[in-house]
Amino acid sequence: MKVYLAGYNVDTEVLRELQKKRGKRQDVTPEVISAAYARISRDSRPINQIRKNARREVGKSRKSNSTIIFKMGHHSVAEHAVFNLDIVGVSRYAMEEVEKFRLCSYTEKSQRYITLDKDFVIPDEVKGTKFEKLFVDIIRKQNKAYFKLFEKLKKHVFKKYPDLAANPKKHNLLEGWAKEDARYVTALATESQVGMTVNARTLELMLRRFASHPLVEVQKLGRMIYKQIAEIAPSIVIFHDANERDQRTYPELKELANEIIRNTSPKKVRQEVQLVEFTEGADNIVAASMLHVSSNLPYKQCLTIVKNLSRDTKTNMFKTAWKNMQFYDSMLREFEYVNLIFSIVLSAACFGQLKRHRMATITAQGYDPKLGITMPESIKEIGMRKYFKEIAEKTNEVYAAINKKIPLVAPYVLTNAHRRRVLMRLNARELYHISRLREDAHAQWDIQNISHAMTSEAKRVMPLVFAMAGGKDKYNKIYQNILGYPPKVTKAALPPARKIK
How far is Cα 283 from Cα 291, in angstroms, rounded to an integer? Predict the structure, then answer.
């Protein structure tokens, strides 16, 4: 057995310094990895030798990549090329388009931990129009409100949590709580930045979607990304131009939807989280799938057996699946066989966290001021409820004015408090992951509330499957209640949790 380290990510500044010292090299490209791995299935030589030849013949490697991807349709070879991209100065609104892609890794500037400055994006569609001043004025009002609220909230949390305030090491934590609530008044136009890791196959899809997107900011971002990687890896990012599927499908669906619902009267829904569909008989299905993987019986026979088991026996099956777990362990893969679909109304701030659970299927409607706003309880506690609502109402007025003429960019002025409606489909294993992370007492209060409501609904229809659901901070207690004894390894100490209502 042999293992070779074929390559790893290196900062481009380091590569430039090396090239400066030793001269420019043609083989400093991820394309040679893709070309070498593409030949494995048809070449009997050791992989490391194939890679060596690919480095020597970069021109042939590029031609090989293009042939395999374009003519033969084997796009998977592009997945072996990976890029790290710094994306800076993009609006929070456009960043949502960046972070739609499942097979990427993102680390974004957090509005919860960093004090925001006054930088924001003015969409090209607004520049030079009569709406530009209106746009800039409302963003400045929101930013002024942010700093005003932040100062008041900072004093409030220090007073509310005197034990933490007494410890200088906890001051950053308390300030973070003030920042995370003050940011609810800031706009989606606020500049952000993200570090992104993406393989070439996903990047190609991303560029195609960006080129097809109606927003100028998103189109511009796509062109800038392509410019960065085009010379380095021209043979593995091929289908990056706009296409009709991405340009026209959703606009045409929207046109048809408007026609269909024109004469209907929508009902007001007050519940923020609704379980709209779920797998019937989920407890039996997961139990049967565990029996299936642990035996040599066909699944249907396993399901029949499980349906005839006593409640205690089925419960014992789940206990056996859980007894060796720690709070950081994921559920068995068999939990993926049952699904739930939720309709959720949530703030932009909360959506920014929920959308990171990319293994779920999430589709979202546009932001809609008619859905109201999510106001942090702390804003009410410091007596700034009326002030906060005034900013939201002024924002809505500007949104309405811009929306009449340039509806595409009107959402830029909406705040993190404004809401949208999303549809989210996920399996039980993924919901457990959300529950552990987001129901935890240390999670941000907005996503904590939403995830708790989701889990509560799930427990109602799948009581056995979700018996162990809950945040990390409650894991030991949940475990002991079900198993009758504590887990073998206790969790590490966590930072102080913020109490929420």
Answer: 12
CA dihedral over 261, 267, 270, 273, signed as positive or negative: negative
Residue 42 DSSP class: G
Q: What are phi and psi of 178, to 5 degrees?
A: -70, -40
User: Interhelix angle for 216-230 vs 200-212, to 10°?
Assistant: 140
How far CA 325 is from CA of 131, 318, 476, in Å, comes to 57, 12, 11
Phi, psi of 269, deg, nearest 5: -110, 120
Helix 58-66 to helix 31-38 angle (10° resolution) is 70
Quote the CA–CA distance of 11 and 3 in Å, as a whole number.
24
Terminal-residue alpha carbon distance, the chain: 57
DSSP-derived 3-state class of residue 303: helix
User: CA-CA distance, 11 to 104, in Å (whole number)?
Assistant: 18
Q: What is the mean pLDDT of residues 28-47?
A: 73
Rounded alpha-carbon distances, angstroms, from residue 190 to 37, 110, 187, 253, 388: 42, 12, 6, 30, 18
How confident is the model over 271-303, as pLDDT tens digits? 899 999 999 999 999 999 999 999 999 999 999
Query: What backbone phi and psi angles, to 5 degrees, belong to 205?
Result: -60, -45
8 A C-beta contact, residue 438 and residue 447: yes
pTM: 0.89
Which residue type is seen at 336? E
The three-class DSSP label of residue 86 is strand
Going edge to edge, which strands form the sheet with 273-278?
273-278, 339-347, 419-427, 361-364
Q: Which amino acid is located at 3 in the chain?
A: V
Residue type (1 letter), 412: Y
Residue 29 CA to residue 44 CA, distance in Å, equals 24
Closest by alpha carbon to 97, among 248, 214, 180, 227? Answer: 214
- For residue range 44-57, list pLDDT tens digits in order: 788 787 777 767 76
Distances (CA, A) of 426 to 31, 279, 353, 363: 35, 11, 16, 12
Cite the beta strand spans of 317-360 per DSSP E: 339-347
Look at residue 491 and tell me whether its pLDDT is greater than 60.
no
Where residue 281 falls (left for φ over 0; alpha for ψ -120 to 50; beta otherwise) is left
What is d(CA 460, CA 453) in angstroms, rounded to the nearest whole number? 11
pLDDT of residue 239: 81
